[in-house]
């Protein structure tokens, strides 16, 4: 056949070369941005990288960043898949509030005094409470999924409904009060340590591992990308597009629910009005910083995690540098602009041309 | 006796904090008890929503309008419309800045600057016990640009300016929330340049979050670091009981009964005081145990 | 139904503007519902208040329509609005500049801000979401650099415009000059979108940017102009807002970008670009405004029930809109 | 006039053009001359670099080296807009129009007729002009409807109409005829001849030898990104042309006129699919159809006769509202979605590869395994090694020109994308493969080889071969490959013919002639 007559330029290790190339393209730039931020911290903040052992676990700024970034990383993981299907989920923050509230209410908002000693009681066994909270998050996901995949509403409007109403629901449960939890085992989730590292980090790693396993060992990743890039062609190739889209919204809500548990556990209370406020924006920002495109298609789970770390490192840096609060936003904006530009090939080309022009 | 019940339109800021929820609950309960028909509108923290709500109260021809302004400025136009419709306006909780003071009849509520001053005075007294030492203060501000944040900062700074040993070394916004309060405090604690002696938080929630951060850093809140906060919510009293918070300055949300009485007087045509300050105390840890059972929010 | 009747119904439902018609019908139904339930609701002034109270949102939504039609998004509008009020306040009250100069200046600044974001998006191939999100932080941050306090505006021209009530002949009731300006911007937007090369290029880019490029359309110019227009509208929205509030404040209009996006999408424009009408922005804005008015008239809802009801009404609205649109498809 | 005027000067002259992409050298040292008043055909195998050359010429890509001269002056267009301003009007290979805009706008966007005080767009004038332009091409459609409502062939015509309407000195057409039928091609050629007489320089790309010889004055042949040579059309025989494209002597002079297989003797098995009364209002009148294992059924008809519609209804891509489909002994039903059809062993290669086929940013490998994976289901992922093996096999078998299987399919040349999409269905080893214009844009040699390969799959001796429903506007190809022909007219069945019953001429008459009778 004609293949014989066509000199196909087959590189010897084509299969090897490509993942590396992909890695370069998608991960190198966010990693570089993160490294740069850390470098600034190294130079400007004394003791930033200092780690000490306190009460059997690591303690230091880096640990804080990881701990704080954990909920955002979870939310970003879920958001990554939604964005890969060319969708968007703005209800993440509301789901965080709902899950946190349900857990806090069920675990225990009661401090009883017995003989002058405070005694902590959980209302119902904690495992059930956590399951119920995740169940609530799951229901939120099902709702979003039905609206987007079933009814065909535009994702932003479909999830906007839950974004508005969800927080209201959470407040309805708590009557607008902050529900404080007085049950120490619950705190482990958000501020406990395992093998010297924050438990939250292990949880994120577990979710990440599970997700990437799902992507690698099943065809989910391929299908999600196909649906995100060209839904018509994907349907004609026999992919259940609606079911897939439904799934990613459920998955995203579950991730958000877990993040909500983490946040509630970390501050030992559920604050329905403020928990996860604007988390969706940060999650989307994390995905885009990590190289994901809002037009759907190619995604990188690790990229999104790095994106989340960039955001949290930036926030932390602002706090540590003693930037006056009224300047926070400007600094954040400038850094986001710079990170974006550093990721733009066009910008690099321009820079090179200018350099060459000068030389 | 009036045949028709008094109709009051009330525009609330939102439900952004426990304090606010308690405030709302108090007003609703008082209205019910007083037989006042309450038209309640929640502004979700947006001034434009409040203006819309006030316009709709005017369209509904309520007897009196009350509201807690999101921000001081920008009320002239809509209040003029209310005046033209001959509906008296009462402000609660926060003041407004209008060119014509006759646009509202009265203002009941706390004085944020005064709260800041009270916090500052407590610290001054405390510092006086140990005159030699410099005290390094960190501040957790409320939402940047919001009235309580601005005023509580102002009042506090005004008072501590009197003692050169007191210095605010770091000040960052914690958005009035526990999570942010904790996050910012964590970062403060890691900065090794100076030992932190005092924490001044613009509300109890941020203080409670910060307390957790301090504990996780292996320090004793209330002892290693003095903690001053404002609002006086139940959580703060619990923290004081546990010895983790030193003092909270009360900012009383239970304005309902006072408001209803005022409304009746206004509608009845009586002259009322232009400024009614709510009764507010300062609760150091020592009185916490006695006070906790009285806390309804 | 008889066959011809069915046929004409089908023809009606297949008409390109049917989705917008449905929205208008739903709006009327919502208004009727309010009128039936609450005393004083079904008045001309309530209707006009919708325009007065949402004038700034309408202007922003018009600008947003263009951005969304071109397949982009602009999250910075709320912040640019706040920045405009802040700059206006500062220039008038602190720097004491003449009001007309201030107006021209802030409008220009808004346009330039948008154009700068557009240029970043187009020339450096950055994602609109991320660039305008950074723009949102930047504008909000700049507000606080100007001042963290709110600034009351008492400049006579602004006060005059703020308090002028233009009586509507025949109907009774009054509107504000800002509402008229907003309607004029809407008309301008409709004209731009449907009768100028710029507007059509926006649609083309939203349909398929690569194709638009290969058809020889001025993609770069159009995209930059689109964001510039949105920035301009946001600044104009800010000016209307300062008429409305007579104050400059860094926390003004938080989350307005989402309201504007929601209004545009409810008005029938597709978020991925290329399909929809600028006129839809009006019905979207009125829908959001009407929902709020309904809740204010009800007056029994707590904060959380307010949110739940807003969400619920939004849901019902979108559901009916969607179902009717589905039915309409042959 | 001076002496130089007597020697014709090229309007457009490209020399020494180089263009490389990461991992691929698409063009090296290419030159091309275009004279006024000529139709110049650019030929070459898939991936030879034709489209890339055109994109360089019109500013979509910037050349790495080389020069472009217009009237002897160097130009450097940076966009299609620049090129248009210089008088170069282009139809690119894939239809590049805006599906959301109306047909009329797609023709006139950028050059609207204006009216009124502020120069508003004159919609009425634009629409009537569009109607007039399309009528010249014998197309009568609602020009106010969005373009996406129309088939690829109509879109192609609209793209051509747009290019023709731009007053230009150079007209470039990259495979404009790939989805047009004979009648439409003749119409287009009529227009091109007229333009040639008016002195326009026309650069034309096609894979059809007939068309090349019917219209061109000169031919430039490209091979592997290089210019092989420039020839006067009359001085180059078909065989020589094919040899120059391929770069090796071809065995037969007239490849297309040979029957693909040794006649209708191949074993035919049981019916794979039987459709009864399959139809949908406004799309297709109820139609009966039966296909047996090991059989190639050709579906012919004019543009718009309902061939694509038939295929889509069979595959469940559109929902039928009448009739039933029976496959492999199962109860009669209708497919609710392509998934159902695929589960029943059917494959469908759409005619619109850009919108309905290729997932542009995914790799060739992923595109190839997609349908197979979808059929296997989510959980049973095909192991990476197996995926690569499958992809490599078909890349070699169908001669897909790509550096490796991980190349995003969108970066392949048009013809090579088409081959990869065909591979997507071949890997599923369907019982019935529906091919809608599968050879669109595939070069002359590969076309023959691919169809031979497909027919060989069906003509297995055991009667278990794959059934093929073959739709093509190229009558010789349909005649060569099919065992049976089904003619569609006006969206309904118009007759069935056995192999050998019709010649090309009589088939044309059946398709077109009787349709004319009906219309009369
Ligand atoms: N953007 C790109 N990136 C990488 N490679 C590319 C790109 N565009 C084209 N190529 C490669 O350049 C070569 C020439 O492609 P081109 O599209 O010009 O071929 P062609 O002659 O038009 O083929 P066909 O007849 O199939 O349309 C191909 O090998 C193709 O894969
Ligand atoms: N010359 C024409 N004039 C007007 N309408 C046409 C013409 N050719 C096709 N159409 C219309 O275009 C639409 C789609 O036709 P299409 O070409 O997809 O049909 P088809 O049978 O699939 O043909 P093919 O497979 O050759 O594309 C139909 O509505 C048809 O009526
Ligand atoms: Mg090509
Ligand atoms: Mg067809």
TrEMBL record, chain A:
Signal peptide start and end residues: none
Highest taxon above the source species: Bacteria
Membrane protein topology class: Multi-pass membrane protein
Annotated compartments: Cell membrane
InterPro entries: ABC_transp_permease
TM ranges: 31-53, 65-84, 90-107, 119-139, 145-165, 186-213, 244-263, 301-321
Name of this protein: ABC transporter permease
From TrEMBL, chain C:
Subcellular location: Cell membrane
UniProt entry keywords in alphabetical sequence: Cell membrane, Membrane, Transmembrane, Transmembrane helix
Lineage: Bacteria, Pseudomonadati, Pseudomonadota, Betaproteobacteria, Burkholderiales
Keyword Nucleus found: no
Protein name (record): Sugar ABC transporter permease YjfF
Residues spanning the signal sequence: none
UniProt source species: Roseateles oligotrophus
Membrane topology type: Multi-pass membrane protein
Protein encoded by which gene: yjfF
InterPro entries for this protein: ABC_transp_permease (IPR001851)
Segments passing through the bilayer: 12-34, 46-69, 75-93, 100-123, 129-148, 168-193, 224-246, 258-278, 304-325
Pfam families, per database record: BPD_transp_2
Automatic annotation (TrEMBL), chain D:
Keywords: ATP-binding, Cell membrane, Membrane, Nucleotide-binding, Repeat, Sugar transport, Transport
InterPro entries: AAA+_ATPase, ABC_carbohydrate_import_ATPase, ABC_transporter-like_ATP-bd, ABC_transporter-like_CS, P-loop_NTPase
Cited Pfam families: ABC_tran
PANTHER family: CARBOHYDRATE TRANSPORT ATP-BINDING PROTEIN MG119-RELATED, GALACTOFURANOSE TRANSPORTER ATP-BINDING PROTEIN YTFR
Name of the protein in its database record: Sugar ABC transporter ATP-binding protein
Keyword DNA repair attached: no
Keyword field contains Electron transport: no
Residue span(s) of domain ABC transporter: 12-249, 267-515
Listed GO MF terms: ATP binding
């Amino acid at each position: 056949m004609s293949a014989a007559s066509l000199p196909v330029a087959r590189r010897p290790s084509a299969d090897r070369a490509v993942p590396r190339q992909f890695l370069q393209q998608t991960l190198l730039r966010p990693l570089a941005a993160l490294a740069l931020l850390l470098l600034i911290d190294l130079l400007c903040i004394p003791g930033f990288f200092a780690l000490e052992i306190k009460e059997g676990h690591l303690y230091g700024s880096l640990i804080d960043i990881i701990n704080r970034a954990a909920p955002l990383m979870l939310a970003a993981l879920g958001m990554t898949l939604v964005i890969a299907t060319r969708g968007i989920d703005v209800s993440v923050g509301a789901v965080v509030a709902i899950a946190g509230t349900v857990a806090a209410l069920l675990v225990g908002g009661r401090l009883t005094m017995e003989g002058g000693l405070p005694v902590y009681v959980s209302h119902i066994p904690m495992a059930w409470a956590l399951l119920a909270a995740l169940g609530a998050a799951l229901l939120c996901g099902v709702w979003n999924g039905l609206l987007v995949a079933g009814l065909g509403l535009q994702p932003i409007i479909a999830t906007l409904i839950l974004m508005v109403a969800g927080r209201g629901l959470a407040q309805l449960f708590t009557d607008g009060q902050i529900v404080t939890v007085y049950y120490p085992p619950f705190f482990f989730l958000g501020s406990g340590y395992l093998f010297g590292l924050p438990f939250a980090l292990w949880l994120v790693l577990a979710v990440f591992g599970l997700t990437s396993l799902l992507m690698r060992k099943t065809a989910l990743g391929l299908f999600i990308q196909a649906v995100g890039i060209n839904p018509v062609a994907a349907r004609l190739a026999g992919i259940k597009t609606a079911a897939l889209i439904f799934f990613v919204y459920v998955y995203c809500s579950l991730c958000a629910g877990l993040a909500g548990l983490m946040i509630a556990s970390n501050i030992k209370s559920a604050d329905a009005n403020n928990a996860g406020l604007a988390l969706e924006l940060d999650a989307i920002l994390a995905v885009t910083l990590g190289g994901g495109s809002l037009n759907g298609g190619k995604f990188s789970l690790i990229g999104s995690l790095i994106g989340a770390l960039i955001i949290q490192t930036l926030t932390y840096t602002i706090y540590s540098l003693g930037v006056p609060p009224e300047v926070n936003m400007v600094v954040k904006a400038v850094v986001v602009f710079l990170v974006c530009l550093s990721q733009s090939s066009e910008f690099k080309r321009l820079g090179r041309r200018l350099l060459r022009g000068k030389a | 006796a009036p045949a028709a019940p008094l109709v009051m339109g009330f525009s609330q800021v939102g439900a952004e904090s426990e304090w606010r929820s308690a405030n709302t609950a108090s007003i609703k309960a008082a209205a019910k008890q007083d037989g006042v028909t309450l038209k309640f509108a929640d502004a979700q923290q947006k001034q434009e929503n409040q203006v819309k709500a006030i316009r709709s109260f005017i369209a509904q021809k309520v007897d009196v309008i009350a509201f807690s302004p999101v921000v001081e400025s920008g009320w002239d136009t809509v209040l003029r419309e209310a005046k033209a419709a001959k509906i008296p306006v009462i402000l609660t909780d926060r003041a407004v800045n209008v060119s014509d003071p006759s646009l509202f009849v009265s203002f009941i509520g706390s004085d944020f600057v005064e709260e800041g001053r009270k916090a500052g005075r407590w610290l001054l007294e405390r510092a006086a016990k140990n005159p030699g030492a410099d005290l390094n203060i960190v501040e957790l501000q409320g939402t940047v640009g919001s009235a309580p944040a601005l005023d509580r900062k102002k009042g506090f700074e005004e008072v501590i300016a009197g003692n050169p040993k007191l210095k605010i070394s770091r000040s960052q916004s914690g958005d009035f929330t526990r999570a942010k309060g904790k996050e910012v405090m964590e970062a403060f604690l890691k900065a090794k340049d100076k030992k932190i002696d005092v924490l001044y938080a613009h509300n109890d929630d941020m203080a409670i979050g910060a307390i957790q951060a301090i504990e996780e850093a292996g320090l004793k809140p209330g002892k290693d670091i003095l903690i001053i906060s404002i609002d006086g919510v139940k959580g703060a009293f619990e923290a004081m009981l546990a010895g983790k918070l030193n003092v909270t300055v009360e900012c009383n949300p239970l304005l309902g009964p006072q408001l209803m009485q005022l409304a009746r007087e206004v509608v009845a045509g009586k002259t009322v005081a232009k400024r009614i300050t709510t009764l507010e105390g300062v609760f150091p840890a020592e009185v916490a145990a006695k006070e906790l059972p009285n806390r309804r929010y | 139904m008889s066959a011809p009747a069915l046929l004409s119904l089908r023809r009606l439902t297949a008409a390109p503007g049917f989705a917008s018609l449905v929205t208008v019908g739903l709006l009327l139904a919502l208004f009727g519902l309010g009128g039936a339930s609450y005393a004083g609701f079904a008045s001309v002034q309530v209707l006009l208040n919708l325009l007065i109270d949402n004038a700034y949102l309408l202007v922003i939504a018009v600008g947003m329509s263009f951005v969304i039609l071109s397949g982009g998004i602009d999250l910075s509008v709320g912040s640019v609005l706040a920045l405009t009020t802040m700059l206006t306040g500062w220039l008038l009250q602190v720097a004491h500049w003449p009001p007309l100069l201030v107006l021209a200046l802030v409008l220009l600044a808004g346009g330039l801000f948008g154009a700068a974001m557009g240029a970043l998006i187009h020339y450096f191939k950055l994602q609109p979401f991320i660039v305008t999100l950074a723009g949102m932080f930047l504008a909000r941050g700049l507000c606080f650099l100007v001042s963290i306090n709110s600034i009351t505006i008492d400049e006579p021209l602004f006060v005059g415009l703020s308090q002028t009530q233009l009586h509507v002949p025949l109907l009774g009731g009054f509107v504000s000059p800002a509402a008229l300006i907003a309607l004029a911007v809407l008309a301008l937007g409709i004209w731009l979108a449907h009768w100028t090369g710029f507007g059509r290029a926006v649609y083309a880019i939203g349909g398929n940017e690569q194709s638009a490029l290969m058809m020889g359309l001025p993609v770069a110019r159009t995209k930059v102009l689109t964001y510039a227009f949105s920035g301009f509208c946001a600044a104009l929205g800010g000016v209307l807002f300062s008429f409305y509030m007579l104050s400059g404040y860094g926390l003004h209009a938080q989350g307005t970008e989402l309201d504007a996006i929601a209004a545009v999408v409810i008005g029938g424009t597709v978020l991925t670009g290329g399909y929809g009408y600028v006129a839809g922005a009006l019905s979207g804005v009125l829908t959001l405004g009407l929902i709020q008015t309904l809740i204010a008239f009800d007056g029994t809802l707590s904060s959380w029930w307010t949110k739940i009801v807003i969400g619920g009404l939004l849901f019902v609205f979108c559901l009916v809109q969607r179902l009717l649109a589905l039915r309409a498809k042959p | 006039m001076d002496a130089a005027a007597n020697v014709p000067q090229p309007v457009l002259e490209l020399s020494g053009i180089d263009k490389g992409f990461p991992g691929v050298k698409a063009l090296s040292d290419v030159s091309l001359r275009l004279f006024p008043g000529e139709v110049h055909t650019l030929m070459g195998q898939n991936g030879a670099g034709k489209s890339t050359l055109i994109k360089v010429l019109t500013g979509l890509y910037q050349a790495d080296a080389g020069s472009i001269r217009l009237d002897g002056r160097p130009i450097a267009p940076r966009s299609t807009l620049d090129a248009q301003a210089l008088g170069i009007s282009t139809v690119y290979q894939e239809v590049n129009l805006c599906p959301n805009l109306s047909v009329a706008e797609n023709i006139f966007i950028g050059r609207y007729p204006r009216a009124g005080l502020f120069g508003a767009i004159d919609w009425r004038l634009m629409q009537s002009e569009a109607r007039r332009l399309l009528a010249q091409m014998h197309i009568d459609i609602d020009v106010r409807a969005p373009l996406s409502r129309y088939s690829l062939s109509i879109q192609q015509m609209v793209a051509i109409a747009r290019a023709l309407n731009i007053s230009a000195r150079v007209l470039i057409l990259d495979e404009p005829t790939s989805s047009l039928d004979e009648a439409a091609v003749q119409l287009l050629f009529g227009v091109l001849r007229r333009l040639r007489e008016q002195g326009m320089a026309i650069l034309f790309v096609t894979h059809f030898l007939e068309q090349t010889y019917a219209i061109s004055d000169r031919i430039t042949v490209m091979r592997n990104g290089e210019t092989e040579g420039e020839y006067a059309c009359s001085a180059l025989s078909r065989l020589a042309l094919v040899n120059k494209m391929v770069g090796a002597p071809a065995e037969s002079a007239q490849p297309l006129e040979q029957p693909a297989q040794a006649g209708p003797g191949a074993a035919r098995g049981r019916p794979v699919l039987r459709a009864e009364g399959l139809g949908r209002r406004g799309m297709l009148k109820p139609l009966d159809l039966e296909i047996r294992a090991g059989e190639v059924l050709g579906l012919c008809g004019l543009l718009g006769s309902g061939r694509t519609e038939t295929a889509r209804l069979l595959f469940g891509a559109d929902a039928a509202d009448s009739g039933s489909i029976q496959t492999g002994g199962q109860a009669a039903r209708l497919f609710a979605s392509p998934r159902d059809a695929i589960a029943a062993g059917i494959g469908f290669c759409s005619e619109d590869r850009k919108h309905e086929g290729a997932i542009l940013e995914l790799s060739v490998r992923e595109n190839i395994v997609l349908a197979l994976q979808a059929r296997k289901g989510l959980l049973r992922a095909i192991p990476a090694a197996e995926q690569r093996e499958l992809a490599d096999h078909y890349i070699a078998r169908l001669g897909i020109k790509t550096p490796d299987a991980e190349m995003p399919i969108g970066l392949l040349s048009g013809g090579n994308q088409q081959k990869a999409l065909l591979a997507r269905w071949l890997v599923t080893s369907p019982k019935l493969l529906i091919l809608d214009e599968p050879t669109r844009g595939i070069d002359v040699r590969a076309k023959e080889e691919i169809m031979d390969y497909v027919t060989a799959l069906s003509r297995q001796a055991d009667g278990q071969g794959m059934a093929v429903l073959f739709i093509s506007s190229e009558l010789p190809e349909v005649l060569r490959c099919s065992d049976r022909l089904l003619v569609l007219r006006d969206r309904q069945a118009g007759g069935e013919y056995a192999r050998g019953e019709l010649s090309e001429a009589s088939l044309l008459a059946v398709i077109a002639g009787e349709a004319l009778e009906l219309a009369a």
